[in-house]
Amino acid sequence: MQSLMAAGLPIAAGVRMFVAPVARAVDGTVRFDPALDGRFETGAPPAGFVDAGMLAEFAPRILSTVKALEMGSPVGARASARDAAGAEVEMAFANWSKLATALADGGVVGNVLTPIGGGDAVNTGAAALPAVALLDGSTARVLQVPVEAGIGVGDCLVVDVDYASETGWVGSGVSGAYVKATTAPPTDVDFVRRVSFNLGVVADVNGEAVTLSADLVAGDPAAGTKVQKVLGFQSRAGVGMVQEWSALFVMDGVDGDRAVWFFPRLQPVSSGEMAEVKVAGAFAAKQLRATMRALPVMDALDGEPVWVYRTYLPAAGREAVR
Amino acid sequence: MGGGERVEMQNAKDTFYVTLRDRLAALNAARTVAVRGQVRAAVVVDENEEPARGADAGVFHLQWGEASMDAREGLGVESAECRVEFRSRGGASGSELGRGRDMEAMHAELTAMLQPSCVPKQRFSESGVETLRTTVWWFEDGSRSVKDKDGAVEAVATVRVMSRREDGE
After folding, report:
1. Tens-place pLDDT, residues B67-97
2. A134-184 tens-digit pLDDT
3. Residues A193, A160 contacting (CB under 8 angstroms)
4. How crowded is the C-beta side of A101, counted as CA atoms within 13 Å?
5. Which residues of chain A does B71 touch, with a Cβ-Cβ cutoff of 8 Å?
6. B135 vs A13: CB contact, 8 Å cut-off?
7. Whole-prediction pTM value?
8. Residue B159 CB neighbour total at 10 angstroms
9. What is the ipTM of this complex?
């Protein structure tokens, strides 16, 4: 009989983050099942999650404290009780992206749309080239777009519906903004596409078939969906909306072990944090950072509130019980 | 650290070498070297073998530094530095342009040979190849140095190769 090796400490080159939008309109979080999905391939995350990339730093903190219950004579600790509970996670992103910006800044991150030209200057981007309606047969990966739209490889596209004076959460797949009923609604028909997370980068164009490098977060486009080109992303500090995400952090050990942290609900604590990474001479990189607070969900197992689940999956043939 | 314990890391070193050799064969079948009359992918371990005279250009030479052991509880990680040297004389023309292009190709090949950077550890013996329970992993430590030497341009990459020691190693 072959002896078992001790599991040892997990050694990994980093931690990869996956996020899933919390369906704010219906108060819904995704689930992560460690039995069914614990060993998921990082290139194919569980349903609902999208890859947010490798992190430059990852520091989860369990904020629970246990207080001594002192009593008796002489007075001393006779029992313990949980005094406070909670969790936070601090991270630094290895890339700038719409997603990293949203997680780091925590508010509305707009899409800068290609302008029609000649219009008035607007802080969030001038009047955009009119959106183009998708043709029948579009999917989450392959859009059918009239050739006249002039889509090319490398273009960044936003794919979403016209704004029609609705209030509440807007944006397909991910809530991009919250429109209050008490204020004057936006008048821009492109408003949803200006805040949407339903974005893709064009990998190939073949006639009307525009293939994206990854599936759209909202899946197959709904009827009435239109497409516009995006020049960049704009974070607006001070906007009332607070982002909320579910997040998985995956650390794959070199010997086949895996640790997964699942935060069902994360909201930003900080906004706009950055760190400077020296490169050489006067050159330096700016790194987006985020500190996020976990909010609890009621666990279906026993009704207890849970802020974060951490799962450890040992490598095959390892002694990880004692 | 190991406190004077001798660390061999032979299985990890062999695995790393065979991995690079096989990957180069798949990447560029034309980059070969003759060693003791046998032609194969142009990766040699200098402490084990010498290629035929004059075959130093266009070959990846692996030179192992001393291995050490981080024996802290729960780690047990062996580690050794591997210098990967390669040079070009610019092919038949010997031109600087040819040397530059050849070196650029070798840099790209080495980068590709080093990915993915984690493979199952193997034990090679006369009776065959046995896959062990741990892995060998590595990373390139620092940037590559490049210099002119004896009419050739020469580059050196430093790779840190690591593995957990198993019982019986």
Report:
1. 999 888 878 899 999 999 999 887 655 566 6
2. 999 999 999 999 999 999 999 999 999 999 999 988 999 888 998 988 767
3. yes
4. 16
5. none
6. no
7. 0.84
8. 20
9. 0.75
Among chain B residues, the shortest Cα distance to A318 is held by: B133
Q: Give the DSSP letter string of A252-296.
A: E-TTS-EEEEEEEEEEES-SS-EEEEEEETTEEEEEEEEEEEE--
Is residue A301 packed enough to be buried (19+ CB in 10 Å), middle (13-18) or exposed (0-12)?
A: exposed
Assign residue A219 a region (left: φ > 0; alpha: ψ between -120 and 50; beta: otherwise): left
Specify the residue for token string 């030179």: B63
Alpha carbons B107 and B113: distance in angstroms, whole number: 10
Cβ-based neighbour number of residue A70 at 10 Å: 11
The answer to whether A11 contacts chain B (CB < 8 Å) is yes
- Nearest-Cα distance to chain A for B121, in Å, is 10
Inform me whether the C-beta atom of residue A42 falls under 8 Å from chain B C-beta atoms: no
Distance in angstroms (rounded) separating the CA atoms of residues B122 and B24: 19
Which residues, 6+ apart, have CB-to-CB distance to B57 below 8 Å? B87, B88, B89, B152
Which tokens is A161 given? Answer: 């519906």
Q: How many residues does chain B have?
A: 169
Integer Cα distance of A221 and A219 in angstroms: 6
Instruction: Compute how many other C-beta atoms are within 10 angstroms of the C-beta atom of residue A273.
Output: 17
Answer yes or no: are the C-beta atoms of A138 and A225 closer than 8 Å: yes
The tokens describing A116, both together, are 């029609």
